[in-house]
Amino acid sequence: MTNASADLGRIVTDIAEEMRARTDRGEVAHYIPELARVDNKHFGLAVVGADGEVACAGDSDMPFSIQSVSKVFTLTLALGKAGDRLWQRVGREPSGSPFNSIVQLERERGIPRNPFINAGAIAVTDLILSGHQPREALGEILSFMRFLADDPDIAIDEAVAASEQRTGFRNAALANYMKSFGVLDNPVEMTLGVYFHQCAIAMSCKQLAMAGRFLAQSGCHPKTGLQVIQAERARRINAVMLTCGHYDGSGEFAYRVGLPGKSGVGGGILAIAPGKASIAVWSPGLDAAGNSHLGRVALEALSKRMNWSIFGA
Ligand code: GLU
């Protein structure tokens, strides 16, 4: 073990211990009943370094609902399919609004601000679905995740998908609204079905950090050496993660952590230290903007101790 990896291992363990001791844990998401049942005492952290070393602590092997973190991977797939044409149906500016806001959509004639708010992610999923049956589109998303993470065991939590399908009225409103402007090509129920299932993919911190490696390595999948996407595209996805990855908490996340990141209401965050590491953290309690509270605190500590902020030392 090199000194650097010994340091990383110790820092990751220390941070997990510090997080365990904290009592300010935030509130689990209540609007998806199945997520409301998750114990907010969980905490996991996994870091995969550029040289392949893995440092983990806490509940880093326990699968959780990745929710909106899935949007990074569907954006990658949709860009592969449509190229820059994707940007005709979804913008790439921060929204400054909650993740499920409908107000902006009306003002901007059904074009969502960015691919990470719910409306934008639904539009991206619709593009992946085109020309396929929902089952095939989901199979494509799942195979992509398994390939990236190098793990065939990644699966969808059907109970979470069903729970959101039963209660996803707000997402149905967003999708119908976009459909009325011709932004969605497929029947709304089909697009939503794929969207709810992609959000219900369950992964551990370790699997998620492995899946994010290509974004830390200029688009390259380290195990196979395959270029998943061009370096320029990886850089741009990281840019959208930085500016839009935490809804209207994106500025605060950039200010405190200084890394591209994408959060999900399951309490997970994928963060990328370009050229250095892919990081996944999970703590189910959320802050007011719907982002993992201790996840952000832990990433702030990690970025500071490793000197990983993209904005300098
Ligand atoms: N499936 C969730 C929803 O559509 C995703 C939101 C999130 O993770 O931020 O409401």
Your description of this structure?
It is a single chain. The chain has a five-stranded antiparallel β-sheet, sandwiched between helices. It has a three-stranded antiparallel β-sheet with strand order 3-5-4. It starts with a helix and ends in a 7-residue tail after the last helix. Helix content is 48%, strand content 11%. Helix 5 (118-129) packs across helix 8 (169-180). The chain folds into two domains: 3-65 and 203-306, Beta-lactamase; 68-199, DD-peptidase/beta-lactamase superfamily (Beta-lactamase), CATH 3.40.710.10. By secondary structure, it is of the alpha+beta class. The radius of gyration is 18 Å and the shape is globular. Bound molecules: glutamic acid.
Instruction: Write the H/E string, N to C.
Output: HHEEEHHHHEHHHEHHHHEEEH
Overall tally of structural domains:
2
What percentage of amino acids are in beta strands?
A: 5-15%
- Rg estimate, integer Å: 18 Å
Ligands: glutamic acid
Indicate the CATH topology of the largest domain.
Answer: Beta-lactamase
Low-confidence runs (pLDDT<50, min 5 residues)?
none
For the record, what CATH class of the largest domain applies?
Alpha Beta
**Main beta sheet: strand number and arrangement?**
5 strands, antiparallel
Q: How would you state the average pLDDT, rounded?
A: 96
Number of strands: 8
Task: Specify the number of helices.
Answer: 14
Cross-sheet strand order for the largest sheet: 2-1-8-7-6
Shape: globular
Structural class: alpha+beta
State the CATH architecture of the largest domain: 3-Layer(aba) Sandwich
CATH superfamily of the largest domain: DD-peptidase/beta-lactamase superfamily
Question: How helical, in percent, are the residues?
Answer: 40-55%
C-alpha termini separation: 25 Å
